[in-house]
Amino acid sequence: VTVSATTVNKYLKGSICTNYQYTMDHEGNVDLHVAFAPEGELPPLPCMGITLTLPASYNRLQYYGMGPSDNYPDRQEAASIGLWKSTVEQQYVHYPRPQMSGNHEMVTMLQLTDSKGKGWTITNGSDAPFSFSALPYSTQQLSTVKHDCDLEVEPYTYLHINTVTMGLGNSSCGPGVLMRYSVKQQPYSLHLQFRKK
């Protein structure tokens, strides 16, 4: 079964059109193609990708990519490529103010499972690796709460998978993101294969 869908996210003078194509086999495995087309005037983009809301019981991680600490396009010197294991809770980084964290670059395989080993194995359907983060907090909560002590664990695991992610820069006490680590306004694509475990 193949299903196609299109969404358009509009900004003041620009938009991002996203085309999805899902192909599901008789066992429930999914082959996903996503195409992103930014147009017009857009603010600096933090990433280009998708977010999946999964049950909180999917809290065990194993991935092949850069780790074990979180890393970004301009923060990779302290990370190395390998097979890493962790939990969703351990992915959250306690920065001075709550924010998105736990990103991992150059990923080609990700497993997200429950305590019985049931869940998903996600691989890159093409040669291009992806980046991901998996957190017990939504982007909305992280952007509105001022202190870690006020965060509330939600009944979901929020899985963010990106084809490109903006670097961090050092704008808190220095320059912002260098141009080569920014998300350029151009078409992007993401090809993922989901296999049930």
Mind explaining what this structure looks like?
This protein has 197 residues and is mainly beta. The chain is 5% helix and 50% strand. It is built from 2 helices and 12 strands; from the N terminus they run E-E-E-E-E-E-H-E-E-E-E-H-E-E. It has an 8-stranded antiparallel sheet with strand order 1-2-3-12-9-8-5-6. The protein has a 4-stranded antiparallel sheet with strand order 4-11-10-7. Strand 1 (2-10) and strand 2 (13-24) form a beta hairpin. The mean pLDDT is 94.
Give a quick precis of the structure:
By secondary structure, this protein is mainly β. Helix content is 5%, strand content 50%. It is globular and about 50 Å long.
Question: Could you list some keywords that capture this structure?
Answer:
197 residues, mainly beta, eight-stranded antiparallel sheet, four-stranded antiparallel sheet, globular
Summarize the SSE layout with pairings:
Elements: E1 2-10, E2 13-24, E3 30-41, E4 47-55, E5 60-67, E6 80-87, H1 88-91, E7 104-107, E8 109-113, E9 119-124, E10 130-135, H2 139-144, E11 156-165, E12 188-196
Antiparallel strand pairs: 1-2, 2-3, 3-12, 4-11, 5-6, 5-8, 7-10, 8-9, 9-12, 10-11
Mean pLDDT: 94
Could you spell the SSE succession in H and E letters?
EEEEEEHEEEEHEE
Number of helices: 2
- The percent range for strand residues is over 45%
Could you give the order of strands across the largest sheet? Answer: 1-2-3-12-9-8-5-6
Gap from first CA to last CA: 20 Å
Count all strands and give the number: 12
Secondary structural class: mainly beta
Shape: globular
Q: What share of residues is helical?
A: under 10%
